[in-house]
Design brief:
This is DUF881 domain-containing protein. It holds the Pfam family DUF881. InterPro entries: DUF881 (IPR010273). It comes from Streptomyces calidiresistens. The chain is α+β, with helices and mostly antiparallel strands and 235 residues long. The protein has helices at 2-21, 30-66, 72-85, 125-137, 182-191, 193-205, and strands spanning 90-100, 142-145, 148-149, 156-159, 162-165, 168-170, 174-179, 208-219. Helix 4 crosses helix 5.
Length: 235
Amino acid sequence: MGTLLVFTLAGLLFWTAFSVSRGADLRKDDPLLQLSDLIRDRGRENTRQEEATGTLREEVRELRESDTGITDAEIRALARAEEAAGLAELSGPGLTVTLTDAPPDAVPLVSWAPEPSPNDLVIHQQDLQAVVNALWEGGALGVQVMDQRLISTSAVRCVGNTLILQGRLYSPPYTITAVGEREDLLRALDESPAVGVYRRYVDAYGLGWKVDEHSSVTVPGWNGTTELQHARPVE
């Protein structure tokens, strides 16, 4: 009876493994590699589409300004709307925050910190969101993450320790640039509880935290689509 029970359990395990893997090797990471390749391909395609959209938008702007049927007041109003929507280039004083992963062999740097897990040594989505939200709270007129301007439909999302922003894939170090009054932006970073949590990990394990102030910095306008993908306006 014992032997029969062992063979029955073994058969059940084999059947379960086959059902889950569908005949594929469960330990192979080919599906993960294929997924990452797909993300990179889509990211390159998104970049090409955004560049094409930017070119078309510039052509529309030139045609609009050459149209004698549009008044100067209407052109100025449209320019203000584009600036508010983040579609126009923006310059002024500001700062850049750089976040970097800790070394993979990092050890506690302070007495109160326990031994780190790999999860403690990388930048997470909430860390990027904390900095972005603090900069908005500090009165930022415009924010750029890596090489992209944030607009109302932007979402800062991470998968593992890679950032997916508006269809593009990024790896650390991550840079966040804001245009605004530097004193207000710095104060907002210092007073943000969420940023404070990240900076405790900076002290504990050596994650990167760098703030560069600029007397003048320029963030680009958003060149991609502004259509809502997963929401509808209230009618």
